[in-house]
User: Which sequence fits this backbone?
């Protein structure tokens, strides 16, 4: 019998928030591949994981580019072997958007938002589902494809269309994939992050509120890990996550 | 007092089904502009309307192109005057898609589906909302921006992702616009067409079922007209439409 | 051939708002039966309709009582003949509720809210669906069973549980009945009234807002009539209705 | 400083499925109170837990009776002290229902279904929220109130109204309580069990399918435990749970 494939986890959209926490969490179980457009988004994290006894490989890539993702897969195979398989793939990227009156938003903003949030999720899934399917034979937990959503994945407020259009499309993608790949053993899930995440960029937000008014990125990572460990008798497609004191 | 602007209705995605019926219905109240990629999609309809005492102007345009839409607006102003206003704009276009296993669908299919269904809806709205806002002063009924959705706007089945991603994005757009432009007096609505429409292309479908197993395109047009005539005390954002015997 | 049955419309929950407007609207097409617990809720309306050339029969009944409804049906048959049929039945009743902290609401409030909004809708449907089914043979428009919902039919806010529990149950009822009786030709619909209706009781509300900040009860009645006239190729199960300037 | 209150978990609707698994799971952390109408529903389970080093107290009660629940609380205080507090309360009861044509279902079936699924959930919450609030001071994890839902909590199929009306009402209750009590630190959650649970009663169902075609009750219990351990920065209100191969 040939040795089982090496199992890895891939995280796209690694920054100082959810992506990093998820990568850290999964790195204690699998080598992790960190995808981000700019190397500075993953370099220190990769270093941290590698120096803590884990294994991390950072790859600079644009998830809205099919060719970029193909090169990322190539880089992964070079590092982990041509028969590399995935236990988890987490899509945590979002396109840039503007919260402005609709008629003041350039068409380009909508285009680039859709190209990351919607098309990016599609291309990411097409790139890594083959590795997840290969993971079926060796992964202890059902190979998992997890998408990070937001309040704007289920509610489309005024002036939020350049964000919500992509996020609704991504949610549609995740639901369709859950229905197609669930029966094949892949766990596809979607998380609605409904609140402000406590990261450096949001340090000054909600300052008059108690600290627990923000979501913990590490706790989101725990929730993603919980999704990953659900047995195939009990798959959850969607969870919502919000601070206890959040108004919704 | 200067004379009030000329009020028109614009229908994008005119083919032999819903688009044509909507154009016919609205043409008994307003001159109608028929947008489609290929002239053969609107030529006979324009002729029919013009010879029946109505007024129709067909313009060949690609709704996924900002420049194309700008030229269409130019053509409209040339025909109806620079101060033309709109009483209604109906977005009835959808991108091509494939009902196939996800990993067999080319990235290009997703791209072109998103570029028509999602980006097309965005660009159409940016092109014609200024005309609708101008219509506020003279339109008897609240100027209306109506989007045609589908079952796949609210449910994302296996193998349907190349359709549903764009349709969910379009629904998000319509909800955000309803919230932003409703208070300005524009009625934004979304119709979920949940079933097969009775058009030449579907003549052979559901042949073992009674004729009322398919939606009537003319009845859809009546429903759009009803949406258009709702007063601003009573706006409906969303309706679903299906044959009585449809399973859902 | 025996003469076709007499077609009537039944409205439960007739007060000075939606119920009265719906009854007035439908009374120009059908004799109407007005159901309310207290005669003073329908007396002046019945008089008005009867003196305007319409025909109205008020019956004092409690929709949460099976026996009460059976007696109402008896009264209807006495008036309109044993073979009376219905073209429309509108359930517009709601139980009393309290907007208060959950632990301060007496169990009795929940019980009576459920017994009107939920059980009342069930008993009303069981009482009048037989008449609607009989209406199939003679009604020009598909016999219609319409339920009045509210914001609280789709959103369950803090302190609103004594209202929303009954309203969600009623929405569930309407969806199930739409799926069961639609194929039999009965049009079952549910309207989400999302805002304040302009009635005597709300005269003092939203006084700093323009008059169109409130829903018009007469316009709701028009919408119900539109639902009633949809052909069986194009049934709408659910509409939402709100003032253009409503935040949602 | 007075000693902290004794923390217990309460499970209503203990039978051979989810209720028993949840009770077993939580019994390794807390003494558990087992509520069921008939003693035979909890007797062997209580014995099993007590003989395994845990602590279980079975109480025969009808959740649709306010007085019955008051007596249960009394019994709990007698056993665990007047200052007893709760770390978790799980409402897992459903009323009886009939899957039949609507007009063939006796009114009594609807009444008893609503009185358990809807009113039962309300009365259970009113009885045990005070104990959960008392648990705030001593519980390691946020005191949790968890409701068991079903496919019929979000979809109301033909002939299912006698089940879905109660389940939609229960979901409304859970959403309202999540919004009211979340800010007070109580974690209110709702689980949509979307499939057949593998219990003795369903042994013969889906026999031509692989064993993982059914939900595992023990895995549901793990999911409920995971909900219970979420920190108050990251509360999930709703999860869906279904076998990987389930069609939905």
Assistant:
């Amino acid at each position: 019998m040939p040795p089982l494939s090496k199992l890895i986890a891939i995280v796209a959209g690694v920054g100082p928030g959810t992506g990093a926490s998820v990568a850290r969490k999964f790195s204690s179980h699998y080598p992790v591949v960190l995808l981000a457009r700019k190397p500075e988004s993953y370099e220190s994290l990769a270093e941290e994981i590698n120096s803590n006894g884990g294994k991390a490989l950072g790859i600079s890539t644009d998830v809205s580019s099919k060719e970029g993702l193909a090169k990322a897969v190539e880089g992964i195979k070079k590092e982990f072997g041509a028969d590399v398989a995935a236990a988890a793939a987490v899509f945590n990227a979002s396109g840039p958007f503007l919260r402005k009156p609709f008629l003041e938003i350039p068409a380009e903003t909508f285009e680039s938002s859709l190209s990351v949030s919607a098309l990016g999720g599609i291309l990411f899934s097409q790139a890594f589902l083959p590795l997840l399917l290969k993971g079926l034979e060796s992964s202890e937990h059902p190979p998992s494809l997890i998408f990070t959503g937001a309040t704007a994945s289920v509610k489309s407020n005024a002036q939020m269309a350049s964000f919500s259009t992509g996020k609704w499309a991504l949610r549609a993608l995740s639901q369709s994939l859950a229905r197609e790949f669930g029966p094949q053993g892949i766990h596809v899930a979607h998380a609605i992050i409904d609140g402000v995440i406590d990261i450096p960029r949001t340090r000054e937000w909600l300052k008059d509120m108690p600290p627990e008014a923000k979501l913990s990125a590490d706790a989101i990572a725990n929730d993603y890990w919980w999704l990953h460990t659900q047995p195939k008798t009990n798959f959850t497609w969607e969870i919502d996550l919000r601070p206890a004191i959040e108004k919704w």
